[in-house]
Amino acid sequence: MKVTRLSSGISIRRTIAEGTGNQVGAVKDIVQDVKDNGDQAMFRYAEKWDGAQLSALRVTDEEIAQAVARFDSQLLEDLTEAAANIRRYHENQQQPGYRQDNEDGSYVAQRVTAIESAGLYVPGGTAAYPSSVLMNVIPAQVAGVARIVLISPPGKDGTLSDGVLAAAHILGIAEVYKSGGAQAIAALAYGTESIAPVDKITGPGNIFVALAKREVNGDVAIDMIAGPSEIAIIADDSAYADEVAADLLSQAEHDPMASAVLLTTSKSLAEAVSKEVDRQVASLPREAIANAAIADHGMIYLGESIEELIEAANQLAPEHLEIMTEDAETVADKIRHAGAIFIGRYSSEPIGDYFAGTNHVLPTNSTARFSSALSVYDFIKRTSIVRYSEQAWQSNKDKIARLARLEGLEGHARAVESRSWEKGNEQ
User: Fold this and answer.
1) pLDDT tens profile 150-200
2) What is the pTM of this model?
3) CB of 187 within 8 A of CB of 30?
4) Which SS3 state, helix, strand or coil, does residue 55 take?
5) H helices within 144-200, ranges in order?
6) How far apart are CA 411 and CA 246, in angstroms?
7) Active-site residue list
8) What is the distance between the alpha carbons of residues 337 and 372, in angstroms, rounded to a whole number?
């Protein structure tokens, strides 16, 4: 890995990838094709992009049962325990709403309700992600979403991975479809003969999925535009080089565009981590992917102080931030921008990916400056409620009318003043 000093002035903040003109154009064409041709377009794209000849998009109950029967029993138990951890964490995010009663008999309130339907995209292709099923579905279930749909790219044999279907089974999700890429997002947004449209789409994917989510945003809600995976690690002399290197590679193996950054005050650690990355990557099954990510988006930055590293981390606003320092809790308290923070030697990032209970669908591309992990909050709506009493109206109608006329909105003023007619006493 390349080593440089933070004082060199190199910017480490990433920006959202826009996609090439060809990619944007292709996505627009795919979305329109699905809108115009429905299932037939979906079948064509499954054959073109996934190499799968499909006669139906929906996964049958029998396919799910067969996948569960084939799936390793220990892994099924592990997924079930992980699901319980994730559910317990997200249940803390439930919101009851509230009502504020006033002495004049009026009240204002907030009602919290779940959205009615959600389409959850689970990536496929180079790897299958049962954990993404858990991370997307469970917050929606805790929120109370009535209809939850899963969609994921099929293999060349026209099936989804046993792990993905086993995870769906654990959570009781039966509406599962075979499709990936931009066409899957279009189908969720606008519907086809087989797939009814949803109110919100969540879940990460490749550049075509990201661009499709951007394309349909507004016609349907989305969670975020997710980019390649990112990890940053703040470490000092107390950290172990082999552990830091392993954690950097845990994200580099995701994607050639993944980012892996070490921020350290220790030159000796920097040099040791660089050597360890070279040593460990050679034995990874996804060596080529990890090597490309490290070569193009990996960096070790040397700072003069922990405070300088903290500021650099806040500038980067990474998806995942690990802190391996002597006083890790104090450092963590000073982090303003990160999708998820992992504190201490034993809090390796994959613990959050799979088992701790926190959500691994996280903001990337420095958007942790203003956005958050996927959560129950993504699947609820907050409706404001007003009930004014006659006394409250009498006390405030003139003030409201004056404010309306200040903004040149005479109709607003008259709407409030119209109640001055003695309609309520005519009988």
Assistant:
1) 999 999 999 999 999 999 999 999 999 999 999 999 999 999 999 999 999
2) 0.92
3) no
4) coil
5) 162-171, 181-190
6) 65
7) 319-320
8) 10
